[in-house]
Amino acid sequence: MSHFGQHLLQYRKQRKMSQQELALKTRLGSQTIEKYESGLQLPDTQTILKLSTVLDIPASELLEKEYQDSPPLHLDPEIEQLVNEIGTKKAKLILRKAKEFSEEDFLRVMQMLYKIKYEEKSL
């Protein structure tokens, strides 16, 4: 089974969808979905975008080589809990953006968020 097929199967099951439901929502045949999941066939770019839209995940998630059901070992329990609370998609987005900021920029962003959350509500 290809990495793509494994990811497609995993995300479809997470969404509690059958192959037939996914096929219907993406306007593909259920045998086509079966071929993708078994690694017998790979979809074109347009089809990958359709699948990712229906599954509500970035296309890159379907194409990543490694998929992990659970967080890596030795992950701080508080971080694991926060990721579970906000969801993996949001956590990845936040972390990807956070690594682009310097420590000073990050502190300014945190101050702005604090002001938005607490100071503007009291006005």
TrEMBL record:
Q: From which organism does this entry originate? A: Rossellomorea pakistanensis
User: What residues does the HTH cro/C1-type domain cover?
Assistant: 8-62
- Identify the taxonomic lineage of the organism of origin: Bacteria, Bacillati, Bacillota, Bacilli, Bacillales
Q: Which keywords does this chain's UniProt record carry?
A: DNA-binding
PROSITE patterns the record matches: HTH_CROC1
What is this protein's name? Answer: Transcriptional regulator with XRE-family HTH domain
Please give the CDD domains that the UniProt record associates with this protein: HTH_XRE
In terms of SUPFAM superfamilies, this protein maps to: lambda repressor-like DNA-binding domains
